[in-house]
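An instance follows:
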Amino acid sequence: MAAIEKQHGRLDIVVNAAAGNFLAAADALSPNGFRTVLDIDAVGTFAVCRAAFRMLKDAPGGGVVANVSATLHYGATWWQAHACAAKAAVDATTRCLALEWGEFGIRVVGVAPGPVAGTAGLAKLAGVGADKLEAIVSSMVPLGRLGAAWDVAMGVVFLASDAARYVSGDTLVVDGAAWLWRPPAAPRGSVEAISRGVEASSRGMVKARL
């Protein structure tokens, strides 16, 4: 922060995007491994925010902090107890700092990316060959494709811009609706027939009771 102030004289926007992760069953995860991910993601995010506070509150028009988290903790994710806890902490920090630092004109926002093509993290967590990776993961994204680094970057650009000048404390999900995905209860083509069958069955039951 001292180097930034010396070279530029001011600080307007901070983006916290550092992360550490690996697959681990909770019963095989050491406390040190758990702590390491928390230190990188959660403690690291807070440490940078705290160090940047003085310059952010002096930024013309108010400073902006954008914390990059994830959607792993929106429910739960297999073999990711450490990362889920860390990302949940990042989101909570975003909300708390937005509450406390609003009086200084600082906006604190978040971005939660989904699966992004070409990232080491996606390949490592997928556990399959690169040739199968895109098809498998894309099939679980309602938009039908992986994201790009550009998609996440544009989310940050939007939140840091005047277009979002009244947005603070919220986290923007950039994942093609992936966190909402679940297998359909019935194929699209059979939905109407199933519905009509249920309605007909219900009418039959009502008549039988009468």
